[in-house]
Amino acid sequence: QTYHVAVVGATGAVGQQMVKLLEERQFPIHKLTLLASRRSAGKQVSFKGEQITVQETTPDAFEEVDIALFSAGGSVSKQFAKEAVKRGALVIDNTNAFRMEPDVPLVVPEVNMGDIAKHQGIISNPNCSTIQMVVALKPIKDKYGLKRIIVSTYQAVSGAGNVALEELKEQSAKVLNGEAFTPEVLPVAKDKKKFQIAFNAIPQIDLFQENDYTLEEMKMVRETKKIMHDDTIEVVATCVRIPVFTGHSESVYVETEQEVNVEEVRQLLREAPGVIVEDNPAEQEYPLATRAAGRPEVFVGRIRRDLDRPNGLHMWVVSDNLLKGAAYNSIQIAEAYISKFKS
Ligand code: A2P
Fold first, then answer.
1. What is the pLDDT of residues 72-110, one digit of tens each?
2. N or C: fewer beta carbons within 10 Å in the chain?
3. Known active-site residue 4
4. Which of 8, 76, 206 to mutate to test the pocket of ligand 1 (most atoms within 8 A of CB)?
5. Quick check: helix, strand or coil at residue 229?
6. pLDDT over 70 for what percent of the chain?
């Protein structure tokens, strides 16, 4: 069986990776529809040696689509995802639009693949920072139980889209050349102030909420509990944008129910699906964003027991935010859907 797949946001940082992965992984496609805003209508994108013309996203563009991969921002998903479902498509949505709705599964295949079966037409792909963290924590939760997570992130600009990537490139050149510039995109397009990202670290990703946490931080809190089916896990996050193009890094501290054994944790993680352990301090082996970029796995290292708490564990978790954090996780969901839940 082959499918008619649509990519919404096909010209964007994540959408481009989706198109590439559909080709590389030989997803069973008989037709690929590429959608974006009116600005991109008419652009050509190559897929399996053919040129496909990008179209404007409209409700009718979803006629006869079997699987629609959305990554064009929450408002586009809110406007069009239900139109796609109405026309018979399964929507896999990479935005924040529906993630916390009770009848929408929020899926990381290595953690809660079974939730796919409960879908009512839409399956959400979690936030990039949440995905890589829960992949690394799942084996630890299964073995020792999870009480508390304290995470600080070091997030790449590509998570804010192609305009943010361009801004980092241009600003970096201007700083080095001693030229003046006005920041225009980061930290958040829709907030009032903009700050320099080149050679800087900005402790704001998305808008501030009433509790003085940012939306990105609260996404990590809420989504982790939903994916792990456990509202009792205490989660707190500090999310920081740094001048890296691709690859989010995270310093993760966890407190487990049972006392942890570091060598056993390394072994559990080595055996865990989608995880690569890079952890040998004597040889300076640890995960790096520059090495994780372009690869689909989650890299874990710097695994060590807390100095004071026998049930405390620290680690460094790195993954390509556009791949496992977005496009690859969405394609994995689509592959799981067609193999397990469709036939
Ligand atoms: P376009 O390139 O036509 O603006 P990124 O995450 O890199 O910023 O990309 C966002 C993606 O979402 C792009 O493909 C962009 O298309 C698409 N997009 C933005 N606004 C809309 C809209 N109103 N309708 C459909 N697609 C949109």
1. 999 999 999 999 999 999 999 999 999 999 999 999 999
2. C
3. no
4. 76
5. coil
6. 99
Give the pair of three-digit tokens for residue 169.
Answer: 């490139």
- Give the angle subtended at the CA of 127 by the CAs of 272 and 54, to the nearest 5°: 110
Catalytic residue among 119, 229, 239, 248: 248
Reply yes or no on whether 128 is catalytic: yes
**Of 137, 133, 106, 105, which is closest to residue 325 (Cα–Cα)?**
133
What's the chain's length in residues? 343
Chain CA centroid to CA 189, Å? 19
Q: Which amino acid is at 185?
A: V
**Please, are residues 220 and 130 in contact by the beta-carbon 8 Å criterion?**
yes
Instruction: Give the chain's domains with CATH numbers.
Output: 3-125+326-342 (3.40.50.720), 130-321 (3.30.360.10)
Written as one string, the DSSP assignment of 289-330 is: HHHHTT--SEEEEEEEE-SS-TTEEEEEEEE-TTIIIIIHHH
pLDDT at residue 217 greater than cutoff 70: yes
- On whether ipTM exceeds 0.95, the answer is yes
**Percent of all residues in the chain with a pLDDT value above 90, rounded to a whole number:** 99
Sequence-ordered list of residues with C-beta below 8 angstroms from that of 224, at least 6 positions apart, any chain: 130, 133, 134, 137, 149, 233, 235
* Predicted confidence (pLDDT) per residue in 174-197, tens digit: 999 999 999 999 999 999 999 999
